[in-house]
Amino acid sequence: MIPPIEQSSKTQDDNKHHISSDAPFKTYVFLADKQRIEDEKLIITSVRKALDIVITDRVARNQPTLYHQTEAILRNMTGRNIKISHICKIMYLAPRLYSVEAKELRTYGGKINEDFLIEFGKEWRVPLVGKDLQLRADMLREAVDRYFNEHPEHDATVPEAPLPRLRTVVNKDEWEKQANLPQGIKKLLEAHKAVKQERIEQQKPKPTPQGSVKERFEALRARVSVDDNVSFIN
């Protein structure tokens, strides 16, 4: 039988072990990770500030804010290698700040490029006043801080919101049905389809002959005999 004092000591040891096992796992963040996180916060807030200025300026001149036209400006204003991914991070944290729409741009040579039209969110009226600018800055700063507080991992980084894309028709048959093509073009496409289908049929493996050589010869002679009789009757 265990003495009372030893039993009490054993119970205390069990409690200590139980408390330590239930203690939350501590995530250690090195100095380099802290600097990287602070740098990411700074870039995101700097892009928001620069982009607000660019959009306001272009709206005043009745010009759309297309990303490919503003990328170099944003890089010069922030001194960083800004990419569309930084704007996607802002859209993930505070989607009310901007609206992004995919646009189709055609060059003089007829080449089609995809670009993105960036505008203020629907709730913001242009031109923005000082109160609006401060509110936008506070919204993004609070969203950034909240994200990293909820994600204390050493490798945490802000995700990117998906970009809208132009609707592309992958199925050629579906495109031909939707496109308003002249009758001559439609007939030409149908002729090309017929030729293509014929080539596919020719490339298919021929069926394996059934029966012996003698049996196949007798069957062939019977068919030839029937054809000759039909020709003679006609």
Automatic annotation (TrEMBL):
Query: Can you tell which superkingdom this protein's organism belongs to?
Result: Eukaryota
Q: Where is the CDT1 Geminin-binding domain?
A: 49-115
Query: What's the protein here called?
Result: CDT1 Geminin-binding domain-containing protein
Q: Which organism is it from?
A: Rhizopus microsporus
